[in-house]
Each structure stands twice: as C-alpha cells, then as structure tokens.
Amino acid sequence: MGVFALFVIMFVSNNVDASVRKNVSVTVDQPTSLQAIAKEYQTKISTLKSINNINEDVLPQGSTLVVPEKPTFKVGNVAKNELNSNLSSSNAAAKAWIAMRESGGSYSARNGACYGKYQISIGLFSGNYSPRHQEKVANHYVASRYGSWVNAKQFWLTHHWY
Predict the structure, then answer these.
(1) Which of 9, 65, 116, 121 stands the most exposed, by the fewest C-beta atoms within 10 Å?
(2) Which fold has domain 89-159?
C-alpha cells in the first residue's frame, strides 16, 4: 500500500499502560492496512487490534484508532524506541536527563577514564564504542546498579554523579 497521511491528536489512553509510551489517536485519509500503521508506529498488528477492539486488517478512509506514539528522534541511525523499547516514559526521560548532564548528549565525550554519552568506565565497553553498544552498556549498568534510570537520576541529584 502506498504512503498514507495521518492526522494526529495527542491523548493518554486508559486502555493501555501509558507509562510505556503515550498513545495517540490517528485518522487515516485513505484505506490503510494495519500492517502499514504497525510498521509506522513500531508496534504489532495484534497490539493495534487489541487496544482498539477491532478485527479488520484494512481500515477504510476516515477511520480513527489508538496507536503508541512513534519515536520522535533517532540515535545514529537507530530509532530511540528500538534501543529503549522496554523503558517507561519516566525512565526514558531520566536517561535523557543524565546523558545531557554527563556529556551534553555526545557519544564521543571523554572525561578521564569515562567515555561516551553516559560517561561510563571505558573498560565496560570492551573496545566497542558505537552508539548502539553505549546504549546497551548504559542500560545494563543502570539496571544492575540502580534498578532504573529514575533511581539513577535520584542518586545523581544527591551525589552529582551516578
């Protein structure tokens, strides 16, 4: 199916866990497959069918449905939610906050024995400093040390490091 246009109205739904990703209401301006919408919003067809209580695979022109908000920026060539799909919105916000405080968001920032966007000890990267690997290492480090990015931010606010 060709390109389709969507008119987006922001809202938080009570039908879906809003802590994972905000939801938006979309209206299609031409007949559109759920497969195309699922791909566009990086979700599953089954999720779209479930949260909208529908069985159709193709939506007629003018149809409106609820979808998870799509990522709004990219990290390198990788969509934010691909790297952080398991993060709640509060954890994603805390992670972004820490990155800005630690490196100004730069994957190549260096401060002594710490490197990258999250200023993590160089030894933890095993020589792989790619943005994708930095994201994975940072998520693992924070999960094992603090349990969440929100907890890491709270520690940072108290100690000015994490």
Answers:
(1) 9
(2) Lysozyme (1.10.530)
Third-level CATH fold of 1-72: Membrane-bound Lytic Murein Transglycosylase D; Chain A (3.10.350)
Q: How far is CA 32 from the centre of its chain?
A: 25
Mean pLDDT by 10 residues, the chain (162 residues): 40 37 80 84 85 91 83 43 74 93 92 93 91 93 94 94 90
Sorted by where each begins, the domain ranges of the chain are 1-72, 89-159
Nearest Cα to 15, choosing from 61, 64, 68? 68
At 18, give phi and psi (nearest 5°). Answer: -70, -15
Q: How far apart are CA 46 and CA 27, in angstroms?
A: 19
Identify whether the C-beta of residue 36 lies closer than 8 Å to the C-beta of residue 58: no
Q: Is the pTM of this model over 0.70?
A: no
